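Input record (one chain):
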Amino acid sequence: MKPLLWLAITSLSLLSLPAQAKEDFYGIIQQRPSGTVGTWTIGDRAVTVTDQTELEGNLVVGTCVEVDFDNGRVEEIEVEPLSKCR
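The corresponding structure, as predicted from the sequence alone:
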């Protein structure tokens, strides 16, 4: 098989792999609803918090947090030191 054709086939097969189910990121809470459920803006990303999301710490605007996703769902939001968000 020609090298370029092999490279193209290999690249396409890698694109079809399923997305990683678990994802975590750090960010600053920029906006949140008055309650807990709803859309939050954390680190310039909109995340949807449900009544099943675990919330740990004093989650106020300006706080650094770690957001844990599992299969596209926000599993947990936890306060972290500001140094994690820099």
